[in-house]
Amino acid sequence: MPTPPPPQINDDVRRAAAVRAVEVRRARAAFKQELRDERLSLAEVFERAEHDEVVASTRISVVLGCLPRLGPTRTGRIMEQVRIAESRRVRGVGPKQRAVLLETVGRIGAGLVERRR
Q1: pLDDT > 70: what percent of the chain?
Q2: 117 vs 111: CA distance, rounded Å
Q3: Best CA proximity match to 102, nearest among 117, 90, 112
Q4: Which domain holds residue 59?
Q5: pTM to 2 decimals?
Q6: Phi-psi sector, 85: left (phi>0), alpha (psi -120 to 50), beta
């Protein structure tokens, strides 16, 4: 049985999708910069994910990697220790995993869990 052809999309729909994609990329870049600048804590990331689709759909490994003092090696170790798959998104991290993540990251640097004042 042959596969059906993809749906026909007019130029207006395609343009709107491209504009939306740029907006999402910019929002995600701003979010990641907030993490790098320590203006946003890991606890606040989980709170924001409840109402912000951009944050909720970001991979948790990317979030951890943006935190100061957490490079790729530490991020990988933490993900393995907490048993979170590399493909897991922020919205997919369960309550027990969140608690362990907050505790683990908190031991590395208190500023990563609670925002510095």
Answers
A1: 92
A2: 9
A3: 112
A4: 14-113
A5: 0.80
A6: beta
